[in-house]
Amino acid sequence: MENQDLDLIGKTVGNMPYKIGIVDQNGNLKNQFVAKASTNRIDIPEQMLSGSGSTGGSTGSNTGGSTGGTTGGNTGGGVAQLPSTINLFSGSAVGNILLSGPTPNYDNVGDGLLITLSNQTSAVQGVFGLGSNTVRMDLSSIGLKRIKVPKEKLIVNNSFDISDQLSQYIGKTVNGQTQINGMGSWDDISKDYSNYSFSFSILSFGGATINVLPNKTLSMNLIVNIQSKNSINSDVAKASLPIPVIQVNTYKN
To answer: Which end of the chain, C or N, has fewer beta carbons within 10 A?
Structure first.
């Protein structure tokens, strides 16, 4: 029982209480135990005390309805959990991502990590027949959801496949953007090459694995494989563009 106190009733058998009552936090009697004259002892079943947080023969209490000595609904065996509002990483990275805040064994990350992907791929050159112009894909139209990595997968040297979290985007149409000669502002390819009426769609994803490295580091080299078509000569071209990670947070189910 939670929040239990021992209530000594005034009567005694010899030099000991006649009864011990167990009451809840509102003072309501939940159970009582009577002294045995044959043993000169009050016996309390062991299961009544298990999980109560008692030590040294006294009973204690947990708060907030939690177990294992934690408070406030946290998980992690009593370790203070990082709130989801704290960024463990913020920036733009492809490859290794050094996290700030988690313990080496990730026991303070709630139920796991949420990884936010950029809506813009990294820029590449020499693709889709556009010469030296720099190209990237704008993925905003497909509504990329954050990648969820459960806590039990966060084991150093473990790998976690995220293909199932990306499969919903295969076949979706995305927007191509370009910088002329790699300089200036980004424009829709359809604006700079209006005569061609380019269209772009997602064929597949590569590198859809998150590797848990030592020293609170994740490694992720996600790429999106894009197919382009144009209305002039019906040419089909393909290119692979990296998708950076821009933020990492914790989550709780």
So the answer is: C
